Amino acid sequence: MRRVFCLLLMISTCLSIRAEMWPFRQYSSLEGLPSPRVWSVIQDSRGFIWLGTSGGLVRYDGREFTTFTTADGLSFGTVISLAEDGRGNLWIGTGLGLTIRRDGRFQAVDPDGLRSRTIRAIVIDSDGCPWVGTDEGVARLKEGKFTLWTVADGLVDNAVRSLFFDRMGRLWVGTMRGISVREGEAFRTLAQETATPRQTVYGFMEDARGVVWAGTSAGLLRIDGDKIRVYTGADGLPCPEVNKIVRDDRRDCLWIGTWGGGVIRYDGRAFTPFGTREGLGCPFVTSLCLDREHNLWIATREGGLSRFMGEQFVLYDRRDGLCEGSINEIRPDGRGGLWLTSLDGGLSHWDGRSFARLDPGPGLPTNRLQLALVDSRGRAWLGADQEVLCVDGRRITRLGRDRRLPAGPMTSMMEDRDGRIWVAMAGGLIMIEGLAIRRVYDAEEGLPDTEVQALLQDRRGTIWCGTRKGLAAIDRNGAVRVYTEADGLLHNQVRQIFQDSRNQLWFGSRAGLMVYRYDYFRNITRATGLVSDSIRFFREDSMGRIWIATDEGLSVFWHGRIVNYTEANGLLGKAVLSWYEDTEKNVWIGTDLGLNCFSGEELRRYSPQDGLAGEAVYEILQDRQGGIWLLTNRGLGRFNGQAVESYGVFAGFFGQIVLRGAWTLDADGRLWFGTNRGACRHNPEGDIPNLSPPMIHLTELKADGQPVPVVNGRCELPDSVRTVTVDWVGLSYRDEQGIRYRYLLDGLYPDWTEPTREHGIRLTFPPPGTYTLKVLARNHAGIWSPRPLTVSVEIRAPFWRTAPFLWTTGLVLLAVAGVAIVTARRRWSVREAAWREERQQMADRIRRLEQMVAPPATAGADGAEAAPADDPAGGGLSAPDC
User: What is the CATH number of domain 695-801?
Assistant: First the structure.
């Protein structure tokens, strides 16, 4: 049986590797494509991707597909060719004529002058005039009229399939019988001694040196002046029928679309094919387009649209020799290889070229395995229920079958400086020397408790064991010394053990921490300055600072002082989950709410709003290029120096879930991830940074659900409007899900918002006034758009709040007030005059009365008063008789 197992193992090792490379992102009817037949693809000057399909014209903005048909003004439903002129107008070639899209409106072009209305190709000359290739010649549209050239004018054939202007202004015409070139006003046929007489020419491309490449039905042509070379299968070209070519300056290669052979990359030395096995939707390529972010878009006959995302991620599964199931442990073997285990109990070894899988059998137990340690000899040590396994290449040693081991699962494993293996289990501690169990420590051997929770060997060689009931120290002779609260421990349960560069031992518990030096324990708790008593782990940086992670923040010990970091003084998050110091001496802290970076005196924070895949950052790792990789609760991320990039299926990453602890750097600097779909390998050197800022555009503005035209970034709305919605889009296709926005709205939100995925804003019952919206977009690499999208919305005030109405009303009120004042003054004057007259009359009457009651004046010397002159009796009043 052992011979059979070894034979099977040798066979599995020699199997050729089949790495599942899926560098393509597929777009089909599920994403909104109206038809799987895509005939052409271009990117316009605004950044939108346009597709010509059998179901109409399609625009893709990174979020959704918008389809335009004959109902929108197209001359025909099947769109074959596309081109954009210098004014931003889109020219659309269909099966029944030419259509132009200008200012968002479609208009069919009069086909007068064309013999065939099937537009196979479109190019724009230096004057902005479109040239179209048809089944009956090539034509130029100028001032609304077509001028046609055919075989009679020098073309090699009337059936035109491709058009191209080179840097010298020459027009190259590819037909079903060869190539014609227009220089000046005449056409000449290109001599092709090595080509077949009925060679169909599908496309052209000019490289940086001025060499013209042509894709034909018989191979790839390289035309350098009068020298013509044909690349065929004899030169390594996998498929001879080449129909599209684009130049990729960033990758320094040519991309070649074929009819039946998928996409081929040519780097000047070799041809590399990419077909359906690599994730391409269909091997029949109809068009290629390289966008401004250097994404390659591939249009196919039946497979919809595909986007090439690079080859940095390679997925391996059982078909490559990997063990079955989710990979939960990956450890380097010290010799350039890797050991991998899965949740289903499998074990595999990667030797740098292929996998060797060790399935459950005579040498490997069927129960669940736990990869705990790779020792200094490259051997893998695994824990199983009641057993310990050592795998050395093809040799498997099972320890524990002949001797009963302590019960319970394995909690930790360690190799000491003498090469002995120490295994901590729930039921005790095992010491393995060579390939034999030499001693088992339990309660009878002096351990305070059989469940060992922490294990460490100090620089003197003493083995320290943390248990629930105290601390045990095992010297080189095997003697056990126990420390408890009676010996100065703060708490008997010791969960973490750490030794710093000054040979101090740090012990963590739920009640605080203990520092041991010179046979003395110093206890530190919240009461004496610690941020929390619940210790998670200890770390020491290059400056000698001790970082203590707790459930409620972070404490830093340095020069006898304690500095605490919590949410109150800037730390993002509460529970500290991970710690890492990079090569620049920056300290990265992962918490339950995001990522923190201590750079000198500066503390930077990163959350999901900044591009982080998830809130909780479990592990941190740095690659050789300086990138900081982050394992979160929602996926994988990488800090590129400016922002956090998230890796998912849109960025080429295949694993939906990366398991904690299942990642490492191999000897070549490549990253390995254990995922729910297998093991994923990534080469950071192949990353192409996305330095192109996203282009941001307004997609729609609606008032009460109805679209409103926006002219020069402005629009006016009536006072009766109840809701206003503004939608925008940032165009970046490297990772559409990584786009973030921030905006401000003068009049309501004067400050920039935090980065968000939201791509619109809604206003309800906005008061009259002018609102200016400014929006910025950021791609997944942290590059912001240089200029904001600016939209000004003016909501007109009601007539009774307009300036003319207010002025008129004011004048009327002033006039009325003036009239009222004048009238009142007149009335007052009349009343005052009447009052004065009445007062005068009353005064006169009083005076007369006074005169009537006055005594008579005396006359003569005897003092008699003289009678008044008007008294007719000539005397005064006589006194009545008594």
Answer: 2.60.40.10
